[in-house]
Amino acid sequence: MKKINIIFSFIFFSFTQHILAQTIGNTFVHSYSPVAYEAGGQNWDAVQDDRGILYFANTEGVLVFDQSFWKLIKLPNSETVRGLTVSGDGKVYVLGDENFGFLSKKSDSQEPQFNNLVELLPADLRRTRVTKLHGTKEGLFIFVGNKILKFANEKVTEVEWENKEDEKGRFANFNELEDELYFSYTDERRRTKFFQLSTGEISSLNNLGRISTSSRQFVIRGDKANELIFLSSKGAKIYNLETEQTQTLFGAFSRNFVEKGISSVVKLSHGLIGLGTRTSGVFIINTKGETLRNINRQANLYDNEVNGFFIDQQKGVWTLLGNGLSRIDLFSPFTFWYDEVGGWVTDILPDGDDLYVASLGLYKKTPTGFTNVDGIPQNEQVWFVEKLNLGEEEKVIVGTSANAYTISEGNVQAFSMKNKPTSGAYQSFYQSRIRPERFILGGNRFIDVYEIKDGKIKFISRMVNRNIDHIRSMQEDNDGVLWISCYNKGFYKTENFDLSAKELASKKDFVAEHMNQDNGLPGVYGNRLHYYHGGLIYSTGKGIYTYKKESNTFEPDPRFAKLFEERNASAEVLWHNSNDAEDNELIVSAVKNKEQAIAILFEGSEGSYWYDIPFKRLPVFEVEVLAKSDDDVIWVGGSGGLFKYNPVVERDFGAEFKTLLRSVEVGKDSIIYSGLDFINSDSVNAQEASFSQLGTKIDFSSNDIAFKYSAPFYDINQVGNFYQYTLEGFDDKWSEWTTQTYQRFTNLNPGNYSFKVRSKNVYGTISEEASYDFTVSAPWFFNVWSIILYVATLSVGVLGVIRWNSKRLNEKNKELESVVTARTKEIAESKIEIEKAYENIHALSVIGQKITSTLEMTELNKIIFEHISKLMDVSTFGVGVVNEQIKKLEFRGFIENQKVFDYQGINLSSGNNFSINCYNNKEIILIDDLEAEYPKLFDGKTITVDANTPLSLIYVPLILDGRVAGIMTVQSRKKNAFSEKEKSLLENLASYVTIALSNIFSYNVIKEKNSMITDSIHYAENIQAAFLPSKSYLSEIFHNHFLIYKPKDIVSGDFYWFSHQKEKLYVAVVDCTGHGVPGAFMSMVGTAILNDVVKSSAQVTPGDILLKLHKGIRKSFNQYETNNQDGMDISLCCIEPTDDLRLKVTFAGAKLPLYGIRKGEFFEIRGDNKSIGGYQKEKERFYTDQELILDGGDVIYLASDGFAGQNNANRKKYGSVKFKQLLQDNAHLPMSEQGILIENELESYMEGVSQRDDITVFGIKL
């Protein structure tokens, strides 16, 4: 998603390093370059007013920032601003190199201005440099030369303090701590002392000992309210303000550290301190003086020169840099790791004080970070890491793309049991609750069963089921039945494995019932199994479901159904402490209203609760696993790496904030409100001005009004803050939430209007509203006298028309009265009959519509029975279908006395049977009294009846293509229940039932054929997959990449290819003619030719490869002698290192381009306009090699044309221009996030329409 709040700015969104306690992690940072804010590079100081607006002291003036818009206010002669402060009356005071003053709005315009106060100084001090301004409730304190002055009530007075009479002293070491100021003063005798300025009074700090004048002294708050920490290159000490005693905290820094030049200090949480340096960025240290982390340019700080820190209202730490600004979230409860844990995280295991993380390799947490676990190859994708109970001890069990391993006391042992198959990627693990000595490892289409005996692991059996792909999770229900979830096939309910080891060893396959939408599941993608409070729960695309054994169906879990329904949320990944039966907490990863959400669910006595506010701060990525450790820390893993949420770190997620109107513009260039909220030209107030005072009247001829607005809430994710507005008097409805910060209205009607806007931050908190009232004046032709004239003229005309029309109507009414009287009598007599007939016709139509759309016999019986029961008395109903193969009339779902029978079959040769008589004679049978009429129909035979025997019966033949395809019967326990009316209705209904039977017959034939075809295509899918590089292999070669590979059908005409030749890496994306099976066949031929070309040639360029591929395709498909024109388009790169440690990329393309980002700039290189294979009109074919030199961190993208060619519901293609813009907009993000956002954009664009072509996008960060 693209951030649009800041116009003409380039914002780097990244993550930088941070420490909490003893574990190193990363946290969020936003950086702003001088290009973004359009001012000088160096920033020296910052303040924030009560509205939340930030002011930065910049080399070119005062930078004003409200999260959406930047504004630069210049001082006289464009002098550098060195300091800022806000006084108790809300004024923002500015200290420049030569002048000082405050900001206000010009009295005759909406422009800001700087009000110089130098002239208020005593004459002898006006040319003396002011070194510090400090604003308080008591006034503005001015440090000039060796004097301290106070500016209050428009007067400047000298402050009384103990060194007032000293003439040659100097100030230094200014440290502002909220409203207090600490500073040192060195008198004429070179004695240095520290002072405190608080509540307008200056007092000395005694017993600090000798204060060095050769090193900068910093003061920050201690952990206790009455303590200060004094820090310099010489070390740090604690000073108690009450006892005036000091205590050493730590000794001097090393010489190497001192040379970096400490420039600023900030107090962080958990006893940590941030140090800014002149040359090496930010250092995080503990109270022992130990360096825990260095945050510099390599760690994504925008610049290494730090001039200062400022903490905003949301506890964001702004670093004021020698070049730019960075906001670091050093007080966040979140930290994260990516490269340190191998990238994409697939599983997490908190194990007491240990933490294991599965990705490409297995990682373990140490006191300083994460380390790879030796013994598990880093080129193996680890799918799970779990606890294995061996009885006497517990071990860690790990499943990878090649084997399984156990870990105990640091020792790693691979599975190498007797009779164990050598092949198998293990993707899931389950240890039986019923038989704890047995556990199962799940792979692709198989499960391996193991048993534990005397602490040893023994392989029992491998059992195969070729329908079950990629087993994600396994659980047993309370009956011992093993359930399996697959990545994209829903659930499978298998047989009971409570067998002996000998019995299991003889099994080579297992039976599983596929559970999908037919069983009530809302979908089959992303389902998982979990054990919760004594039973299984099932995560689905519509939330948490439970299973009903009686009906073999799923339904929403009533404990959580309301939570998911209200939020339109899925349940993707769950965590629950299944070892604690009293634990009512669930952690869920969901998609809520099409947005990612992570939430804590709690089942309480008064209902269940959903809490997701803190997790809204996380970036968008694919969540694979959730976990919680014993210290209540929540761990989240997936494509974005590993995230840690520490609830101990307090954060006010519901803090109030404001939405501010930043400008109101009438016409194209007339600003009537600038958002400065200055009351007059010589004062500035930080409170919101009354917009009722600021409302204005707009002339009708120029009623074009535009509003800019912003929310000064700086704790944002990739998207930023959202806004909602309304214009009362025009449309009282609030708009949809949007990131847009500008709204224009034109051609408004005369009247009174009130524009209102509010914002919503990343945590979902909605701000106070901002409003602006205005009036659009009426034009001259809408004034009062004009309207009176219009009304008078119209009234006279209307009155005349009314009188003439009234006379005409009276005459006409007399004629109609006699006609109406006669007609009314006729209508009344036929009304009842017509209404009854209409009801029957309508009912028949409704039944017909429903039954002709059903494709299942039991459902057909149910629908007909429900509807005809409302039209006649029915106790028994059924539709029988003729089975010519076994010569039977088969009833399925036959209903008799409220009971449903699965199956009843009657031989077509049976006698004394009404159904068979109807079949043989092809005529309707109507019986009014069974007991009386039975002997007449069956040669005098009698029938015994009781209270449940139907006495009235109708049998209707269902004739299809001239033959009887079935029989429909309706029966009642009452005599004479049916008349000719019911007989006629059922005869008409039979036409619809016959159509429904035809549909069902056709559907079953198509379903059987489709199943056979689909099975064949799935087999082709497996063959094609074997030709493609695996994801784990790609991750091994390209550590930072994403791949979007979406076949239109099961198999694809697109494919991606990789090979290498010594130090050269070849990578390609190929788009073959067609899609589906023909395209897949082409792709396999193309892959084989590409592999052969690279292996058979020692030195080959991409252009050479394409030429040989072209010739190979033409030869393989005999295109030299036939009209076959099949071929492919391709984008192919060769990547190799240069002598100066850069990368040379050689590209050749056939109708496909290469996109990329080089030094932050987007580029496109087009391939030749010639396909591979097909018709060749030129005598000699060649493909052009194009070279470019790239650096590490640059990005290349290869893509087929499927993404750009995808249409939306309006049949509009996405287009290559928009696709390239999409790549540019997301290029600054980590590659995994790019892949997710690009795929989300595709899904959003094609919502409601099917995919029209195969789609492949391959992004690689070099």
Automatic annotation (TrEMBL):
One Pfam family named in its UniProt record = GAF_2
Q: Does the keyword RNA-binding apply?
A: no
Q: Name one GO molecular function term.
A: phosphatase activity
Q: Which UniProt keywords apply?
A: Hydrolase
Q: Which InterPro entries does this entry report, sorted A to Z?
A: Bact_Sigma-Reg, GAF, GAF-like_dom_sf, Ig-like_fold, PPM-type-like_dom_sf, PPM-type_phosphatase-like_dom, WD40/YVTN_repeat-like_dom_sf, Y_Y_Y
What the entry lists under SUPFAM superfamilies is as follows:
Calcium-dependent phosphotriesterase, GAF domain-like
Q: Where is the GAF domain?
A: 856-1007
Q: Which residues form the PPM-type phosphatase domain?
A: 1034-1262
Which named protein is this? Answer: GAF domain-containing protein
Q: Does the keyword Hydrolase apply?
A: yes
| Source organism, top-level taxon | Bacteria
